[in-house]
Amino acid sequence: MRSVTAGIVREEECNVSAGLGGIPVDKKYTRREALELSLGAAAVAASGAAMAAAQTTKMDAPEVGTPVSASSEFNKYGEMLEASLLLRTSPIAVKMLEKEAEIPKETFRPKRDGGYHLAQCQAFGMSRREGKTVAMLKEDHWCPTALMAYGMVKTPDSMAKLGESFMSFEVGKYIGVLTAPLKKSSFMPDVVLIYLNPAQLRGITMPMMYGGASQVSTHLFLPSCAHSVVNPMKTGRYGVVLPDPGEYQRALTLEEEIIFAVPQEKLPGLMAGLKSGGRRYSHRDQYMSMKPDFEQPQFYKDLFKGWGLDSE
């Protein structure tokens, strides 16, 4: 399979480390060569097993409250995530603002600079697709949910009738929210939002199987602007968030996109896990093959034999 990264087209290699139908085991094959040699799922299994072994070392994430000292390191993370996961849009750096002085000079403010209002999901869209740094203060909002969740207004009792349940910040703690593409943000984010498809989500979460799965929360219901920002900041947990209808109707979020939210203190550990074994883990390392009686990994065979089922 050919992949394009930073304008460079290259053939990726897969190492075949087990005897496969008389084919040499000490040779490196490109993915295309492997398919042409009919290695199919067997090569996939061998390559996948080697990769899984490289991920088994549990990464020690930094302690909560010990953020990376410079935003430039996070800029690098943004570039690495885009390249390794082949993201369609940029990961978003999100910072909750306590005072107006925290807003960078180049920041776009919808009402002041554009003469209009936005929903928070639209501001996310501007940052991840257009590369803009956007500050959303109380007067910039056009959707009530983010105002309530981010503690910019009090939540009225009538909201209980709508059936929406979400965490919120203390009223008055923050005056607004600042967003920018992670790869060029000039501020330290409180949380990073990554819009990705299921294959990319699998690529970024697969290394967590060996130590971080318990740190992932899933949010399937409204409102995604709250679950993706407030929850990670208050709990310190990763979040897999299903975009709510407003994201699709107003912010041009694609039907196949999911939000993966990463609190600041967890991002260095996440990136270390993706690079475990000297390479970045990616959904590109997964192969597609639909063959009956495909070559089973050894532990499949062991299980099937134990159950008295065919394994050859």
Overall pLDDT score:
78
**Assembly annotation:** single chain
Strand content: 15-25%
Question: Could you give the count of β-strands?
Answer: 11
How far is it from the N-terminal to the C-terminal residue, by CA? 28 Å
Rounded to the nearest angstrom, the radius of gyration is 22 Å
N-to-C SSE series? EEEEHHHEHHEHEEHEHHEHEHH
Rough outline: elongated
Strand order of the largest sheet: 6-7-5-8-11-10-9
Helix content: 25-40%
Biggest sheet layout:
7 strands, mixed
SS-based structural class?
alpha+beta
Low-confidence stretches: 1-68
How many separate helices? 12
What does this structure look like?
The longest helix is centred in the first third of the chain and has 15 residues, at 40-54. This protein has 312 residues and is α+β, with helices and mostly antiparallel strands. It has a domain at 71-278. The protein has helices at residues 31-36, 40-54, 71-85, 110-114, 120-130, 144-149, 198-205, 224-227, 230-235, 245-250, 267-274, 298-306, and strands at residues 2-5, 8-11, 13-15, 28-30, 92-97, 134-137, 176-181, 191-196, 216-219, 238-241, 258-263. The chain is elongated. Strand 1 (2-5) and strand 2 form a beta hairpin. The two termini are 28 Å apart. It contains 12 helices and 11 strands. The strands form 3 sheets. Strands 6-7-5-8-11-10-9 form a 7-stranded mixed β-sheet.
